[in-house]
Amino acid sequence: CTSCIPGLVLSEKGGVCESECSKGRYKSGDACKPCHVSCNACRGPAKGDCLRCNPGHVYFKHTCVTECPEGTFVDDSDGADARRCRPCHAACRTCTGLSVDECTSCSKHLFLQKTSCVLQCSAAYEPDSSSMLCKPCEKSC
After folding, report:
1. Which member of 26, 43, 104, 125 has the greatest number of CB atoms within 10 A?
2. Closest listed residue to residue 58, CA positions, set 44, 72, 46
3. InterPro entries, from UniProt (predicted)?
């Protein structure tokens, strides 16, 4: 084959019509063309056309990034090849998960107590305004 009926694409090796393009390629007319280098699956050639990412990258708003931006975390619950950036809870500036008790740092004016962001530190903790952490009180307190 040198061309295919509508709906099929010419294989990369040529001579064979297929219904799908291989990984890292997308349909363009009756041919398969390469995705952006960071994409494992895509809908076009640009960096912002990604649908899935290659190893070492994480999916974020149709692009593949090497690390999630602040306010998001890597979610790999759908498998290592489907890693994506998900938003943290609004109280968290950085986090390890969706929940309010999975924060690693807090939004403005909140203190981090263990893994939760709080307005005021609880009993047995004292606020450290320079680090915005709730630190355990001395045993003599």
Report:
1. 26
2. 72
3. Furin_repeat, Growth_fac_rcpt_cys_sf, TNFR/NGFR_Cys_rich_reg
